[in-house]
Design goal:
It contains seven helices and nine strands. By secondary structure, the protein is α/β, with parallel strands linked by helices.
Length: about 210
């Protein structure tokens, strides 16, 4: 399966519009296609299931067969952040996202849509940069048109995405002594996983597109 993470420099940059275009192009070319919104902030109830509104939109427009639970595995309704900080959320949210991602393994392509800029979701340990790295997904950054601030925002977001991707590769090659007894890296996917002094490395996994 090929997959791509659709990121942005902020809200209202045209990410969902771009996602509609990408999915339409994939399907017109005969590719078996999936859509996933790993972390959603705008939760709606569809057929008794809570899901992000973008996942509901893509399912309705393109008639995607996948359950909303896989398309929108984690959604953050009002009050969720406060509960998370208070320690009331004990579920491994990263595992829920990884399990949902595996459900699309038989597809030709999977489009993964992020939420806002690369750092959104960091308060619950699931920023866009963390999720893209966790899923080993190359990213496209959608930006508003112009120069100056848009370019600055692209560079800033690409830096965070690149750093997280670098750290993911680093942990993948960690020696046995750094791994947990279950065989997976002992460090959790959270903002505190790595020190800020770690080298970001260089990556060619990111593309930027501007919306005019």
């Amino acid at each position: 399966m090929r997959h791509v993470y659709l990121a942005a420099t902020g809200q209202n940059r045209g990410k969902t519009t771009a996602a509609l275009g990408f999915l339409d192009g994939f399907l017109r070319n005969g590719l078996t296609t999936g859509f996933m919104k790993p972390v959603g902030q705008r939760t709606v109830i569809q057929d008794g299931v809570a899901a992000d509104e973008d996942a509901v939109l893509m399912k309705a427009v393109f008639g995607l067969p996948d359950p909303l639970g896989a398309m929108s595995p984690v959604h953050i309704p009002r009050g969720f952040t406060k509960a998370y900080i208070a320690g009331e959320v004990v579920e491994d949210l990263g595992a829920r996202i990884r399990n949902a991602h595996e459900m699309f393994a038989d597809r030709d392509v999977l489009l993964v849509e992020g939420t806002g800029h690369a750092g959104v979701g960091a308060v619950v340990g699931l920023s866009n940069a963390v999720v893209a790295a966790m899923l080993r997904t190359p990213a496209i950054i959608v930006s508003e048109g112009g120069v100056g601030r848009p370019i600055d925002e692209i560079v800033l977001n690409a830096s965070l995405l690149s750093w997280r991707a670098f750290m993911a590769r680093r942990f993948t090659r960690a020696p046995t002594s750094m791994r947990s007894s279950a065989g997976s890296p002992s460090a959790r996917w959270s903002p505190a996983t790595c020190s800020s002094g770690s080298a970001p490395g260089r990556s060619s996994s990111f593309r930027a597109t501007a919306r005019t």
